[in-house]
Write a structure and sequence with these properties.
Blueprint lengths: L18 H7 L27 E3 L9 H8 L7 H4 L5 E3 L14 E6 L19 H5 L4 E2 L14 E2 L2 E6 L5 E6 L13 H12 L20 E6 L2 E5 L8 H4 L10 H4 L11 H5 L15 E7 L3 E6 L5 E3 L10 E6 L2 H10 L4 E4 L5 H8 L6 E5 L4 E7 L11 H10 L2 H9 L3 H8 L6 E2 L23 H11 L23 E7 L3 H16 L3 E7 L1 H10 L4 E5 L3 H4 L30 H15 L3 H18 L3 E6 L2 E5 L2 E2 L13 H4 L6 E2 L26
Parallel strand pairs: 2-12, 3-13, 18-19, 18-20
Antiparallel strand pairs: 1-2, 4-5, 6-7, 7-9, 8-9, 10-11, 11-13, 14-22, 15-22, 16-20, 16-21, 17-21, 23-24
Helix pairs in contact: 12-14, 18-19
Bound molecules: galactinol.
Amino acid sequence: MYTFLRGTAYAVLSISVSATALQAQMVEPTTPPPPPAFDAQGEPVFVKRSDVFEYRALDSYSEPEWVTKKFVETGKLPPVEERLPAEPLVYKTANMPDGPGVYGDVMRHVIGGRPEGWNYIAGQSQGWGGIDIGLSECLTRTGPLFMIEPEDLEPMPNLAKSWEWSEDGKTLTVHLIEGAKWSDGDPFDMDDIEFYWNDHVLNPDITPLNGATQASFGEGTTLERVDDYTFNFHFQTPFPEQVLYNMAYGNFCPGPSHILKPEHPSYSDNTVEEYKNAFPPEMMNVPVMGAWVTVEYRPDDIIIMRRNPYYWKVDETGKQLPYLDEMHYRLSTWGDRDVQAVAGTGDFSNLEQAENFVESLRSSAREDAPAKLEFGPRIIGYSLYPNLSGNGWGQPDEREQAIRELNRNLKFRQAVSYGIDRERLGNSLVKGPFTAIYPGGLHAGTSYYDADSTVYYPYSVETAKALLAEVGLVDTDGNGFLNFPEDTAGGVDVNISLLTTSDYATDKNLTEGIVAMMEDIGLKVTPNIVSNNDRDALRRSGEYDWQTLRNPPNLVTVIQNTPQLAPTGPQTAEGHYANADGELDLLLWEQEMADVVNAFIASRDPVERAELMKTYQKLYTTNMPAIGLTQYPGALIINKRFSNVPAGAPIFMFNWAEDNIIRERVYVAEDAQQDHQVYPEALPGAPGSDGPME
Ligand code: BQZ
């Protein structure tokens, strides 16, 4: 399966420039300068997981009065106690910043994504921005871990309410919440779990949206049903505790098998594509386990959701959650999300585009500003990802293959890194103490980061040019751009296509900066700017030379999505998937990185794990599977009328703020409520029916 190929083609070519002159210009790699001081503004209130919620039966339950009157008393809905599980998830009052809430009002999100459809587990995007996080509940939960004491840092229960390891650590027995129901009243049970695992995770033709594969749970891992609410995971290695993180958002969030299965290619005549598209955005009321259900979709305008009458979480007074009756997702741009949040026409934003920092800070500083803005730690990082596959992933043509061979050449990647002026790049986004020089790898300020293990190729055009000459690239046609040797791609200019999403100004600005800086060292780079969904499709299919990308979360947390830190499986490492035959042509250092990551996953010794991550960081920043660009903090913007927003919630740590703030227990005090509901006193309708039930 694993074959080793070396980028030898160029090494032998002799070059005219005298080696000594070149040596003289070369700048040695060093460690990165310390980032400018920038303290997070908010401080979480650290607690144990068991302080946040528990599963237990309460004496009585309640719901919004209009639900009782209009739906229960009219027989359209069974009484609340019959809709809830035997032991619902109960949020503890002591952990609610503002105490138990009241029903009503809406949270108005603004997003830049667009829904492809509702078949999340078959790989469809719902537009991001908290939509999929709100609709899909997962076995465990990690968002709120930002406020959990380090001693108790382990994923929180969710649909899986408890689990235990076998003596030898090779079996994890997982207990699901019993009696919970999908938003149409259908029981949630092992049928949904097995359908997700057998017919999606293990199905090579279908990949859930966030890329879960068997490798995400450990090579050779199997899932065995015990009874309707219990299953065993069987592992090849003992105590792979990482798996608990991969049972959280994005990797183990089952879909409604009673709705999806009849359309699945294994149980119908549908093709994989037909199954994927069988639940288009226009289809309303698709059952969910989340707190709100989609009842209206107006293309390029808005998605409206109404409270889920079967939601399986309550507060300690017995009130069924959520408190908010309606959710809006206005379909606009990510930049507009910031603008509307500080203006008060939107209610929430992850301020993640550095270009919007100054204006957002200015507006939210006003006395009468409608929203609160709070910066968190430096967790946003951007990198340049070269496609490292040399054996056909993405079906490259001759030119593309020649680029892949360059990408696989360390000297070439070093040249690119030396050619990037990260200070200028950061300042081109925003001036001030926000951006930091980021060589790549683990983010400075995160728990496993070690500056001494971090290699930094400081900005030096001369060194970059010298290395490109060593690789054998010469400007043979004198147009200022380096050419391939005669016998490669017809000796044309080396012209690199740089894949970038059009959805974020930051991504486009960084790409423009890279194009200019690469021209300075003689490399022609052409931006390929496409929509986010198209970008994500090309990213997964490998049809790109380079891409500008906001780093995946595991470079911040390490303990989440750990297998994706390196090519530990055929589709785990950003930038290097296996080819169509499943062959992964790893370079030596990539194999070393995969071995280190697997050793980290298998280790339960905190000292050993810290050492392993130092080795990982050294391998990463020396060899650069991705070349770091910049790193900066994000800020959470929330309208001041919302209560129960946890202190110090970062826009991103283990998950995005849309998960971190626990939206189902966020509320608006009666006297602060605003009249934005489009369908007051309405509930979701039958699956596939139009609009809400009134
Ligand atoms: C936050 C997030 C919630 C995905 C997405 C989007 C996709 C990526 C990433 C972020 C958006 C927002 O990020 O930018 O602030 O609301 O949705 O899911 O960038 O293109 O594939 O990983 O989470």
